[in-house]
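Quick one, tokens below:
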């Protein structure tokens, strides 16, 4: 079974997870920008990883369209985010937004907690985060999620850890 990891990463978290996965499964990991350098049709399973961006998996819809041109490719998705893995409801909501139909939800998907890096973030993303921080600080009655979010986005942090690849690795090994 030939496996390929394709990752989209702005601040390095998804790239780090992609490399852990490729090391563990002994398969190549290719950045989405270098997609043209590989022939997807040679692989049986494509593992696509990207960041969560405003509640969605960044670039997944576009990549799925590119994949549709290659029949019989099995897609496995992993997403990295600032949300802690323990926040099950929030992560569940992200998947429901990402895969709005029951059929789509059958795509194997895995969440890996990562963090935030203001140092590596682009100007546009920095602007969005500052606007969110301002909105939350000015909001009078915040619920617990909003309170947690306000604390979490104050500074950069890294809560990534290799163990979060384990469910994906087990899934692939059972195939
Ligand atoms: C503008 C913006 C929006 C984000 N939205 C979310 C989100 O909705 N949920 C989440 O868990 N993380 C969110 N994040 C955090 C990123 O998903 C997280 O930092 C991710 O691991 C970055 O991956 P990368 O380093 O591979 O680019 C957001 C980050 C930015 C800059």
């Amino acid at each position: 079974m030939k496996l390929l990891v394709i990752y989209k990463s702005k601040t390095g978290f998804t790239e780090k997870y992609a490399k852990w996965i490729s090391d563990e499964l002994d398969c190549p990991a290719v950045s989405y920008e270098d997609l043209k350098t590989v022939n997807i049709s040679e692989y049986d399973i494509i593992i696509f990883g990207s960041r969560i961006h405003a509640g969605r998996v960044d670039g997944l819809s576009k990549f799925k369209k590119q994949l549709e041109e290659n029949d019989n490719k099995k897609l496995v998705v992993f997403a990295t985010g600032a949300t802690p893995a323990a926040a099950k409801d929030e992560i569940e909501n992200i998947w429901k937004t990402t895969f709005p139909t029951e059929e789509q939800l059958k795509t194997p998907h895995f969440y890996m907690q990562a963090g935030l890096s203001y140092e590596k973030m682009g100007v546009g993303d920095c602007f969005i985060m500052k606007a969110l921080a301002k909105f939350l600080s000015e909001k009078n009655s915040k619920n617990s999620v909003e309170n947690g979010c306000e604390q979490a986005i104050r500074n950069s942090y890294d809560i990534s850890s290799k163990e979060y690849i384990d469910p994906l690795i087990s899934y692939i090994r059972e195939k």
